[in-house]
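Re: [help] complex structure
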Amino acid sequence: MKWIYRFLSICLALIFLVPVIWMLAVSVKVEGFKLDSVFDWFLPPYSLDSYKKVLAQTPLLTWTGNSFIVATATTALVVLLSSMAAFALSVLRFRFKRLVYMIVLAGLMVPGEATIIPLYQVVKDLHLLDSYSGLILPAIASPFAVVVLKSFYDALPGELLESAELDGAGLWTIYSRIVLPLTKPAMSSIAILTFIGSWNSFLWPYLCVSSSELFTLPIGVPTLMSGYTRDYVIPMTVNSLSSIPIILLFLIFEKQIVKGVSLTGLKG
Amino acid sequence: MNGKREGMFAFLFLLPFFVAYVLFTLLPMLKGLQMSLYKWTLIAKLHFVGLDQYVQIMRDPEFWNALWNTTYFVILSTPTMIVLALGLALVANRNSRLKTFYRSVFFLPSVLSVTVISYVGLFMFRPYTGLVNNVLKWLHVLPENKEIFWLTDETNAWLVLVAVTLWWTVGINMILYLSALQDIPDSMYEAARLDGATDRQLFWYITLPSLRPITSTILLLQLIASYKVFAQIWLITKGGPLNQTRPIIQYIYEEGFKNNNLGYAAAMSYVLFLILLILSLIHMKWNQRAEGGTPA
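Output below.
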């Protein structure tokens, strides 16, 4: 019984791994290789020629750079803006606080996909289409991040902030020296999830950007895929190259990513 | 602390978030309402048509077809997603040396981009040369001289889309189940075991009931996410064959940007928004009832 269970578990794991292994294996095969049996997909001879070819002949590196710029800027701004807003909503006293918070909460109900058409019009009116700003700015106000961070700031012991206040610490000091350092894990969860979400975002970049030099990876890659009906090596090289950064990130930050997902539910 | 100064400080701290929030979330909401009441093209706002476009939507067979396709996708993917996510979580929760290996393997596809998973799926399910048909022939499930045309047949196309989507996103739900499983106190199992409960009884009478709140959360998040399905279908089948897998977002996109009819697309977005809003409200109510806590 135990062995059957183990065997099934391994099979499941294989099913999950095979597409990724296949992608990586095919990417290092020789272009035009002959397929006599299923194992030929995975077995040598290997070659990195397709990598050289893709890197030399396609703008994949530029797009990787764009994805990196957009994801980093989006993440930095989301963390900064939402932590400031959450600090105000959690710690500070001011008029209409409840109302302001309700407006933020209402944002949780607005799915980005349902406002994509008017968002296009708004960004067009602001003359931000086809620019880095157009890719970055629409994603920087995340009500989700504000709500999550606020719940963490709410959980900080009140005496801590009060005693800092009595010691004459200004609000900025309380924010930057006490609240931020104490909630680092929550902020890094938000940061990692935002980064992955932005790195993989498809629909908005697809609408926003029309010049190839501004493409991010998810919208650039499809433009390289047409015309490959027989050859699998180049398409899988493109896929592998565009996945390697995020796979590395996953291997390094796996613990935090998993914690972030279970901590904050799912988003994106 | 001086109240006025604190108010000023709060204003300054909220300002950057709210500028972006108003510009890119609240303003588009209003703009969308306005656009849905006009004939509106990619170039310019034309004339006011009132609610005509909403009436037109109700009579548009293409809209109902796309809405049905999306609903069909939801019906196919949601129950399978929940069962699979639970199954994987149980595998990854077993005390074995491979525990973290399983968790990583099941979660890995979730970090890949939709483009990558779509093209891996597309190439794997190719007839003649694709890996899936290769393997089926190798296992003698499929005779050597036969091919399965995965993407040109409606039923098969749905199978591929659901399989790829499950493979891609089930990891996130598995993690949610996994953390719920780890929250069940060991003492409950120990006590039941002392009373002579079997493994099967432990599962049916302790594990499953403890997972009810997280299941309802996953169910509703999944419903909402599935109604927004677009990219993997766009990349794998382009909505084909013959628009039979075209989801609502794709119809909105094509109507707006291919047919130059942003007003009508905005009106359809509002209908989709209403559907998602209703689902979200149910989710919030559900959460409040389950946890008696704050909506989030």
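The mean pLDDT of chain A is 89.
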